[in-house]
User: Which sequence fits this backbone?
């Protein structure tokens, strides 16, 4: 990681172009459930909060009010980037934040705009992140894995880090 980049910067750099995050939460009976949600952020910011819009008609907001422990995962298989984020989610009624984050694509789901009564804003306060960023080409990855299989040593591919936020 560059000396100039904070863990927040590096994390945002990895996920900013990945359109959907899979937000996983717990159902009351204990099972896990994941939803593909569009990240609404324009940056991660010092507070490390991810923003998502959800429909009040879905169970997501209700579940998060009961248990806000979540995971958001991102992947870009073409770039071999994989990110797992742990955090605490809350449903916010912050109209200023809704207006600031609202965009044309959100309008397709919430035609009433930022004040649409069906619109709920989910804030995920990031507490931990882990990422894998494989920069080697697919051919190099294959060669390293083959060499590792022959030598019995684990292949060293890309960068793997854990970040406490």
Assistant:
């Amino acid at each position: 990681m560059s000396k100039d980049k904070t863990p927040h910067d590096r994390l945002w750099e990895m996920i900013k172009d990945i359109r959907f995050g899979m937000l996983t939460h717990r159902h009351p009976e204990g099972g896990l459930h994941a939803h593909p949600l569009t990240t609404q952020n324009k940056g991660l910011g010092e507070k490390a909060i991810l923003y998502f819009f959800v429909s009040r008609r879905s169970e997501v907001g209700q579940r998060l009010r009961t248990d806000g422990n979540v995971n958001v995962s991102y992947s870009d298989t073409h770039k071999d980037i994989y990110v797992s984020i742990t955090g605490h989610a809350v449903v916010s009624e912050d109209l200023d934040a809704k207006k600031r984050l609202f965009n044309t694509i959100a309008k397709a789901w919430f035609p009433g705009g930022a004040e649409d009564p069906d619109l709920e804003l989910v804030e995920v306060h990031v507490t931990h992140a882990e990422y894998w960023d494989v920069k080697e080409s697919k051919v190099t990855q294959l060669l390293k894995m083959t060499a590792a299989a022959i030598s019995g040593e684990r292949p060293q591919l890309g960068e793997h880090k854990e970040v406490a936020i």
Remarks:
- The first helix runs from residue 7 to 15.
- The longest strand covers residues 119-133.
